[in-house]
Amino acid sequence: MRISGPERYKLSFDSGAFAVQCQKGTPKFSGIATSKKPKLYIVSVDNKPIYVGVTKQSIRNRLRFGWNAAGESGYYGYAWRHHLIEANLDIWCHEDAPLEKPALDIETVEAEVVFLIRCAGQWPLHQTEIHFHPSTSAHRAVAESIMARFA
After folding, report:
1. I need a surface site. Which of 39, 84, 124, 133 has the fewest CB within 10 A?
2. What domain range is 100 assigned to?
3. pTM
């Protein structure tokens, strides 16, 4: 399992829209954030994860979907957009995902990351969904390396 990242972005937002600024100061996503490969992303405030997600879409499209959701099919979008005005967004990419079930490994890492957050105290404040799959020592090692960013 080859994971690249993280790439960090600063999000400014209200409940209706978001703006992004990358580490280089540009107002757009680039690099792995624009990839169609499976990605894990963590939204954090004061270096504390409040939401962990996965996607194969570009991050801009995924965020747009979370901002525009209005309850159709039971999905109301990101809860944190109603409670905050800024956050950090860190993104990791699964570079060598298998062709069959390409999101399976990154979803497994997602669950392990959320588990590590819970072991340190409480579930991520705005976590609303998670995918559980049997994990291996490789998944757990990747999750630990990701969480080291927030130690």
Report:
1. 133
2. 3-150
3. 0.94
